[in-house]
Design brief:
Length: about 100
């Protein structure tokens, strides 16, 4: 097979940098907020690190959850030739009427 995947766009290549930048902004904000309240550098650096890591994990999870949908291209593991939502299909179309028993 000589299927070449298309090169990612500039936006796709910059996405990790955007996540790191947003997480860094959240971390600096929390660190500054804690420093103004406690006047302790150690505590503010620890809280900035915790906020950076937590926001990075949350943003990445939200990015995965809101990613592109590939529902039209799914393949039935039982019958690869069956259309989605047919009688032999494991995947049911939620928009169709449920079968009467």
């Amino acid at each position: 097979m000589s299927d070449k995947t298309p090169a990612p766009s500039r936006r796709d290549r910059m996405r990790p940098a955007e996540l790191l930048g947003m997480a860094a902004i959240f971390g600096v904000f929390v660190g500054g907020f804690v420093f103004m309240g406690s006047r302790e550098w150690g505590l503010s650096l620890i809280m900035a690190g915790v906020a950076f890591i937590a926001s990075l994990v949350i943003l990445a999870t939200l990015l995965i959850a809101a990613g592109p949908r590939y529902d039209d291209d799914r393949v039935d593991p039982v019958d690869p030739d069956a259309a989605s939502g047919t009688a032999g299909s494991v995947h049911r179309d939620p928009r169709s009427n449920p079968p009467a028993h």
